[in-house]
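Chapter summary example.
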Amino acid sequence: MLLDIVLPGNPNRNAAAVAGIETAAKQKPVAFFTPDAAKLVTPGNFEDNLKEIGRADWIIEAVTENLDIKRALMAKVGVMRAPGSIISTNTSGIPLGAISDGFDSEFRQHFLGTHFFNPPRYLHLLEMIPGAETLPAVLNFVRDFCDRRLGKGVVPCKDTPNFIANRIGTFFGSTVHKITVEDGYTIEEVDTLTGPAIGLPKSASYRLLDIVGLDVWALVTRNLHDMAPHDPWRDRFVLQPFLQELVKRGWLGEKRGQGLYKRVGKGAEKEIWAIDWKTLEYHPAQKPRFPSIDAAKNIEDLGERLRMLIAAQDRAGSFLWKLFSDLFLYSASEVPEISDRVVEIDRAMRWGYANKLGPFELWDAVGFEATTRRMEKERPIPENVHRMLSAGVKSFYRPADREGSPHTEYFDLAGGGGYKTLEDRPGILVLADIKRARGVMKRNAGASLIDIGDGVVCLEFHSKMNSIGGDQVALIRAGIEEATRNFQAMIIANEGENFSVGANLMLVLLAAQEGDWDELNAAVNAFQQANMAIKYAPVPVVAAPFGMTLGGGCEVALHAARIQPSAELYMGMVETGVGVIPAGGGCKEMLLRMNDAKRAFELIGYAKVSTSAEDARHLGLLRDGDGVSMNPERLMADAKAQALLLPETHAAGVPRSDIKVGGDSVYALLKLGLYLARQGNYITEYDTVVGEKLAYVLSGGRNSGEQTVSEQYLLDLEREAFLSLCGRPETQQRMQHMLKTGKPLRN
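The structure predicted for these 747 residues follows.
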C-alpha cells in the first residue's frame, strides 16, 4: 500500500498517492514491468489508512528529508505496527540514531535504513544501514529479500552522512562543478567529458542534474556540508554561485522545463539548448570536440582509454586528471569512516550511479602506482595510500595467489594488513573469474566455450555488442557437440552490456552490395541450422538473455529448451526496421508458439520489443516454464540451475513436420491489414513490401487452403524472403542508415 498526505481542500483524500502511481506509470523509462503491475499498488493516506500497517510485515518510510517530520510519523507507526514487523527509513542521509532516538527497544531492534536509489527499477543499489540495536535476523532477512526478490545489489553501510554512494557521488559532482568554474569549461564540454567516454552514463554531469532536480542537489550538498563538519574536503560541498542562482530562479531542471538545458520548439523544429553558466543565457547546444576524446573513441578497453585521456596534453586531459585525482584521494581518505573496505565503495558507485567502475577499480584501471606517484609530486596523499605505495603494492584488487582459484583479493586499506580474499557470494557466478581459474575450452574472436562446473558448459558471445556472425555460429555447433560428449547441459550466457543485438548487419550489407548471394545464402542457412541444433540438441540448452536481445539474438533464445531471462529484458525481432524479416527461425518459432499467423505478424511486422521479461511473456516470447531472474548478478547461476533440472526429462526430439499454415486465405487477411495500415498512413510504401514478404512466410507460401508443412519448409521460406529483400535498394538504404545513425529509416 502507498500512503501519502491528504491534500488540503481536495475531496479525494488519496489524490497525492493516486497521482504518484499515475506518474510512475507514465514516466520514461517506465517504472513498472507491465501496465497491469501498477494495479498491485493500493493508494491510501495517513489519516484514513495508517492503521493498515498493523497487517504489514515490512513498513518503509519515504517521506521528505526532514527529521521532525520523520520522527512524528514514526511515533504514529510505533503505536500501530504489529510487534516483530520491520520498519525501515529510505532516508538518503539523516542519521538513523536521530530518527529512532527515544523509541522503545523492540522498535529499535526492528528498525534500519534501506536507501533505494531512484529510479529503483533501474538502479541496482540498495544501501542497508543497521541501527545501533538492529537484530541480525532482521538484517539477514532484508538483505536476502532485497537480493532475491527485488533484484537489488545490497551494500551494508555505516550510519554516516549520506552513507556511501551519495557521499562519493556528491563529492564527484561538486568537483565537476568546481573545475567547470575555475577552468572555464562550458556545460556541453563537461558533459562530453563525463559521459560514456569515461565509463559513466549518457546523462553525464549536468544532464544528470536536470534529471535529479537542482533543488534536490542543493539540499543534498547542504545536508552533507552541515552533517560532516570534520570532513577536510567539506568546502567542496558548497554549491557553486551559478547553481545557487538557478535554484533561486526556479530553473530546477526537467520538472520545471529548464535548468542546465531546455527544449526549444516543437516537433521537427525541437532543439536542445544549453545554458551559458557565466551569463545564464541559453544557446543551441554545441557538440564540443577534443583531440584526445576523438582519438579515444576507437579504444574499446576502458582502462586503456582512460590512461590515454589522463595523459593527454589538452583541455580534456587537464579536466579529467584534476577530476580523477581528487576522486581517488577523497575516496581513500573516507576509508574507514564510511566503509572498512574498498569493495563496498566500488559496488555502491557502480550500482547506484551506473558507473562502469568504482573509484578504486578506476584507480587500478589507470594504473595505481603510476598515478599515485604523479599525485604525490603534486600534493600530499592519504597516509593509508602512502603505506600501500611504500609496501610495493601495485593494485587494490588482484587474482588470488593460488593456482586454479577463481577468487579475487582486495587490499585492506583500513587495516593496512595486506590483501584479503573477497568472500564468495552464493548463487553468483562470474565468468571472468571462472575463465581465469579454469581457462577456456575453445575460443574464437567472437565466442568462447567455458566449463562452469557441475557438468554444464557455457557458450559466451563476446563480439562487439555481441552481434552474431560466423564465429558465434561455429561455436554454437562446437558447444553442442562438446556438451553431448562430456556434459549434462549447456547454457548460452555472457557478461556484456546486452545479450545480443542480432546479426552482424555490416557483413549482411556488404554481401548484398557485392551480390555475393551464394555466400549470404550459406551464412543464413548455417545460422538456421545452428538454431535447430540448439532446439534438438541431445542435452538441454538454456539461454540467459538480458538487456537488448534483438533479431538473431532473440532467435537464438527462442530455440533453447528453456529461457532464463533477466527481469530487464528488451527482446524482440526488429528486422523489418532494416528492411528484412527474421530468417534464423524466428518466424517459424512464433508461428509454432502462437498458432496464430495474425498475432505472429503483428509481433514481427511491427518490430515489437518487450519492456521487461514479464512483458516478453505477454508478447509470447517466453513460455510458462521459463523463469525470471530479478537480480542480474544471479542470472548465470540461475540459468545453470535451470539447466541441471532438465536432463532427466529432456528428450532431443526431431524436427516437426506437422505445422499447420493457413495458405492463401491467411495471406489475403494479412495483406488486407497492410492495406488498411498504409491507408491510415501508419506504415510506408516500403513497409508494405516487407510486410507482404512476412505475410507470405507466415501463411506458408500462399498454399491453396490450409496445409501441413515442416520446420525446414518454413526455414526455406524465411531464407528466400530474406535474400530477396536484401537485394532491394530500399533495404540496403535502411541498413546503411541503421549502421550510421543507430535509428531505423522510414523510407
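To summarize the output: The longest helix spans residues 165-183.
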